[in-house]
Amino acid sequence: MTTATAVTAASTGNAGARVLRVLLTQRIALLAVLIIAVVITFFVQDAGGYLTAPYDFDYMSASLINAVPLAMLGLAELLVILSGRGGIDLSVGAIVSLAGMIFGFAYGEWGWPLWAAIVLTALFGALLGAVNGFLVSYIGFPALIATLATYYAYKSLAIVINNQEPISTPPIQKLFSISESVELPLFGQYVPDVPLGIFTFLLPTVVAVWLLLARTTYGRRLYAIGTNDVAARWSGLPVRDTRFKAYVYAGVLSGLVAVVTVGQFASARPDAGVSGNGMALPAITIAVLGGVAITGGIGRVSGVVLATLLIVWLNAGILLAFVGNEGSQYQLLALGAVLVFAALLNGLTNRRYGGTA
Q1: Handedness of CA 247, 248, 249, 250 (dihedral sign)
Q2: pLDDT at 179 (0 to 100)
Q3: How far apart are the first and last CA of the chain?
């Protein structure tokens, strides 16, 4: 081998190592690559006639309606997982169900104004989250056990609060309009319509959580206690209060998701957040896939958003790849595979590079 050939091979090897390092340590870059790969794969299958319906930009845009609740609950899991000590919230789906019923009563039966009903639902979600935070932060229950217990409790209350009946009065039915797609101003005629919930719920939530984590002292405290709560306590940080508030904020987000689901179903359903496999497990999967370390202290809002897009567009393509309802079963398989992939990837990154960015 000549010197020039050896130098070229070494440069190629170094470039490959740098690319691998970027993909492993910069979760945003990896997710962007995976999203592009998924979209191209389904575009190719669509062009080859292997899908049951067109997989195009209109279909991708319409499927974003599913991203609204998933991303918001993924951000809720981001907050509690960041708090460390095995932080996790299995009750978010049950909170969605119970808070949705409260919203149904307030707006659909009691005649409250929409804004007041939304505020009530968010505050009720905060109350349910505060119960989780109290059990975890002040009583010392493991988060897994505490939120599993409240999951059963909230789910049961949602079912019995209205004798297992949904609330579907005319005001509630009209809320379906928040799930409709709208044309973007100025250049909307050139791009597909976008679900209204993206602008009314998801984007404000993303901005609020990003500001909370990146621009407030609370956000810095949350990262600190998630990384090492013993050191944080010796530094004088209010560890219990900070962790407690993470669960309260997660409850607020779950309450807002309850409003979204009521609009999507045009009905306040007692099983809205727990039917099938529920909303909690997909939300946790999205958080972990987005680069949130299950040990706490590591995670970004942008990672959760991109992970949501990946899951939503992957699920949308899987539905078209099979006839009938078979696709929904393969969605579960894909979700499990993605969760295993994310966990392995997080472990590999921590061992080789000390974490993700």
Answers
A1: positive
A2: 77
A3: 39
**Cβ(93)–Cβ(278) under 8 Å?**
yes
User: Which tokens in the block code for residue 170?
Assistant: 């005319």
For residue 169, give both structure tokens: 């009065």
Q: Which residues pair with 268 in a beta bridge?
A: 167
Taking the chain (357 residues) in runs of 10, the rounded mean pLDDT of each run is 54 65 72 90 92 90 92 96 92 96 94 95 97 95 95 95 92 84 73 87 96 94 91 90 96 96 92 87 90 88 94 92 78 81 73 61
Asked whether the CA dihedral 312, 124, 246, 207 is positive or negative, the reply is positive
Q: Which residues contact 14 (CB under 8 A, 6 or more apart)?
A: none
Nearest CA among 188, 295, 283, 297 for reference residue 242: 297
298-333: pLDDT as tens digits: 899 999 999 999 999 999 999 998 877 777 778 888
Cα-based distances in Å from 250 to 66, 133, 170, 171, 212: 19, 10, 30, 27, 12
pLDDT at residue 2 in the model: 62
Which contacts (CB < 8 Å, 24+ apart) does range 347-350 have?
348/24, 349/24, 349/25, 350/293
Q: What is the C-alpha separation between 320 and 46, in angstroms, rounded?
A: 9
The whole-number pLDDT of residue 352 equals: 66
Separation of alpha carbons 134 and 146, rounded Å: 10
Reference 143, options 212, 99, 90; nearest CA is: 90
**The two three-digit tokens of residue 159, written as one number:** 């079912």
